[in-house]
Amino acid sequence: MSTRPVIAVDGPAAAGKGTLARRLAAHLGLAYLDTGLLYRATGRRVLDAGANPRDPAAAEAAARGLNPADLARGDLRGPEADMAASAVAAQPGVRAALLDWQRDFGRTHGAVLDGRDIGTVVFPDARVKLFVTASAEERARRRWLELRGRGAEVAQEQVLAELRARDEQDAARAVAPMKPAEDAVLIDTTEMDADAAFARALAVVEGKLSGA
């Protein structure tokens, strides 16, 4: 087991937590894990099989069959993948199948993990917990620009509606709902660029790790 710290970075889609977590990991020399990819890959496997991501048996089977190649697929982003990921993440069997994998990764390496329940469920004893958020409108704008950059033609209003639907699904699920840990530091990136968000997060992390 590593003595290096585990840093939990949670928050809703398109808040900037992935970019922030990767930069923190690189700066601190820690491993990085995008736990959302596990759920995205699970959802994609269910869709590939022609099953419903809300089917508990199909979702759990897909989670237990995950392999590293699934995480490297190029079709794990976009509205269909987003909703499938959110649907499988609501299944207790899926979360149980992936929980030990995530914990083993963090305990072995020390790591920065980003997701939606890292600080509340996966690593409730993490040395540092951040909850990164932004307004729904700003997150939708960012996601819309990302989709346009990949050549997708979609209305910004549609992106906003889909994002709000996913937020609701993630926050309302009975198992490991998305919410800030009680001891998480909230970072609202609505008015921040990536550099400002990183500077704020790094200050929090360094303060926590030094015991300040």
CATH superfamily: P-loop containing nucleotide triphosphate hydrolases
| DSSP, total strands | 5
Q: If you consult CATH, what is the topology?
A: Rossmann fold
The low-confidence parts are none
| Average pLDDT, all residues | 92
Major sheet summary line: 5 strands, parallel
Top CATH class: Alpha Beta
Spell the H/E element sequence: EHEHHHHHEHEHHEH
Tell me the structural class: alpha/beta
Q: How far is the N terminus from the C terminus? A: 25 Å
**What proportion of the residues form beta strands (DSSP E)?**
5-15%
- Spatial strand arrangement across the major sheet: 2-3-1-4-5
> How many domains comprise the coordinates?
1
With helices defined by DSSP (H or I, 4 residues minimum), what is the helix count? Answer: 10
Outline the secondary-structure elements.
Blueprint: E1 6-10, H1 17-28, E2 31-34, H2 36-48, H3 56-64, H4 68-71, H5 79-89, H6 92-109, E3 111-115, H7 118-122, E4 128-133, H8 136-149, H9 156-172, E5 185-188, H10 194-210
Parallel strand pairs: 1-3, 1-4, 2-3, 4-5
Helix pairs in contact: 1-10, 2-3, 2-5, 3-6, 5-9, 8-9
